[in-house]
Design brief:
Helix content is 82%, strand content 0%. It is mainly α. The protein has a domain of 75 residues. The chain starts with a helix and ends in a 6-residue tail after the last helix.
Length: 110
């Protein structure tokens, strides 16, 4: 009985992996946008990159690159929090999908 539960959990986790990867990618994107916005606000009123249109473009590129690095490292923890909150829902949806598949085609999974 316990082996059946473990086997079912493994099937659910394996089935949910593509959606979980999408969630991780999206969550990192959200964290990067937040960090980029935060950096832009912090730089307002400063002349860190000089003046003029070129300076604002350079500042935007710098903020984007920095935000991506920060998000990839999970420094703020926003992406991790989003993944922790979204994972149970994705696992539940995957379990329900697999249960529906099993009930309509009982030979698919023992």
């Amino acid at each position: 009985m316990r082996i059946d539960l473990v086997s079912k959990a493994v099937r659910i986790a394996h089935g949910a992996e593509p959606k979980l990867n999408q969630l991780r990618h999206a969550a990192k994107g959200v964290e990067a946008m937040f960090v980029k916005s935060l950096m832009a606000e912090m730089q307002k009123g400063t002349k860190l990159f000089g003046e003029g249109q070129g300076a604002s473009i350079y500042a935007d590129l710098f903020n984007e690159a920095l935000a991506k690095q920060v998000a990839d490292r999970g420094a703020f923890g926003i992406a991790d929090l989003m993944v922790r909150q979204g994972t149970p829902k994705i696992l539940a949806e995957t379990a329900a999908e697999q249960a529906n598949t099993t009930s309509t085609n009982p030979t698919t999974h023992p």
